[in-house]
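Q: My labmate handed me this sequence with no annotations at all. I'd like to see what the chain might look like in three dimensions before we decide whether it's worth expressing. Could you predict it?
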Amino acid sequence: MPGVISDVQAVADAPAISDAPAHIAHQATRARTKRRTASFALDVSILAALLAASSAPTPLYPLYQDQWGLSALAVTVVFSAYALALLLALLTTGALSDHLGRRPVLAGALLMAAASTVLLAAADGAGSLTIARVLQGAATGAATSAAGAALLDLENPRRPGRSALANSVTPAAGMAAGVLVSTLLVRFAPAPTVTVYVLLAVVFLAQAIAATFATETAHRHAGALRSLRPRVGVPPPARRTLPAVGAAVGTVWALGGFYSCLGPALVRLVAPDAPQAARGMVFFTLSATAALTVWALRRRPPRAAAIGGCVSVLPAAALTLSGLHGAGLPAVHGGAVLAGIAFGAVSQGALRMLLASLDERDRAATLAAYYILSYLSMSLPAVAAGAATQHYGLGTTSHAYAITAALLALTALAALTASRRGAARPVADRLR
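A: Here is what I predict for the chain of 432 residues:
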C-alpha cells in the first residue's frame, strides 16, 4: 500500500511539475510586458516634459519685457534661438539613437535639459536667456527623435496606432501643460521666473535616472560618428509623402510660432486691461485644443484629418484678425481654438501618413526630418514677424501673418487633394 500511495501521489504531482515551465514562462512574459508598458509611459512623459519646458517661457515673456525692457524682436530672437538650436541638434543627432540605442541618448539629453533649466532660472538679461534657450533647444532636439522612435519601437500589436497617436498628442499636451503651470506660477508664486525652471530641473533629473533602467528597443550598430554629419535622412516611402504634407505642417507650426511668441503681446494690444498672468493663456488655448483634436481624430483617415485641419486655418485667421477690429479678446481666443484644431488635425494626420510602413532603422531619422520641417516653420516666420513688428507695428504684422497663413493653407489643400487623387489612381487601375 505504501508503494501504491506513493505512485498515486507521484501521478497527482506530475501535472504540477509539467506545468511549472509554462507558469514560469508566463510570469516572464508578464514581467516583460509590464516593463515595456513602464518604458512607454516614461517616453511619453519625457516628450511631455520637454515640450512643457519649451512653452513655459511664453507667459514669462511679458515679465522679461517689463524687467529688462525687451522688444518684440528680442522676444522672437530668444524663442528662435531655442528652435534653431533644436534644429541643429536634430540635423546632427537625429539618427544617433538608431546607432547607440535609445537609453544613452535620452539620459544624456535629459541631463543637458536639466542644466539648461538651471541657466534659465539664473538668467538676468536677454543674453543669458538666449544662451540658456540654445542649450535647452539642443537637449530637446537630441531627445525628441530618440523618445519618439522609442515609442514606435514599443508599439503593441494588439493596439496598432497607439505609438503614432502618442507622438502626435503628447507634444501638444506638453506645451499646454507648460503654459498652464507657468501661468499659475506667474499668478501665485513669489518668484515665477525661477520656480518653474527649478520644478522642470527636478523632473528632468528624475527622468534621466529612470531612462537608464528603461527597456532598450534599438539594436546597436556601427556608424554613430558618421550619423552626426548634418543631413536629413528620409526613406523612400516617407519621401513620397513629405511633399504632400509639408505645406500643411509648415502652415500650422507657423501659426503655433506666432501664438507662442507674439500671443501675449497680441492679447495686450487687444485687451490692455487683461491681467498679466492671462496673456500667455492664448497659447494654452491653442495647444490644449490641439491635444484634444489629436485624440478626437485618432480613428479618422489621416489624409482627411490633414485636409480638415487646413480648412480650419482660414476661419482661424479671420477670427483672430476680427479681434483687432472690435471683437476683442473672445475673438482672439476663438481664433486660437480654430488654430489648435488645425494644428492637432494636421500634425496627427501628417505623422500617421509619414510613419506608415517604416522599419526600425528609419524611425528616428524620419521623426527628425518631420521636426526639422516643423521647427523651421515655427521659428523663421516668428523672427520675421518680430522684425516686422519693430517697423510696422503688431497690428499690421498680424494682418500680414494671417493672410500668409491662409494662402499657405490653400496651397496645402491643393497638394493634399492632388496626392489623394494620385494615390487613388493606381487603385482604380488595378480594379479595371
